[in-house]
Amino acid sequence: MAWEDRTPFEAIEVEYGLNEQQVIMFMRRSLKISSFKLWRKRMHGRQTKHGSLRDPAVSRGYCSTQYKHR
What we know:
Blueprint: H1 9-16, H2 20-30, H3 33-43
């Protein structure tokens, strides 16, 4: 969930009980340093990753076409 751009940190906290700082520490321990740096650069200030910055009309944590069922 942390790797996905559209999943807000608030959803991770509800699901796993980890706040944003704990998720960052988890990712720091779990990823190679280069992957962690790329992830942090991508996440910093991203509107979709922070519920308070998100458009209120978006109530889902993923793209509507992401999970297509045949």
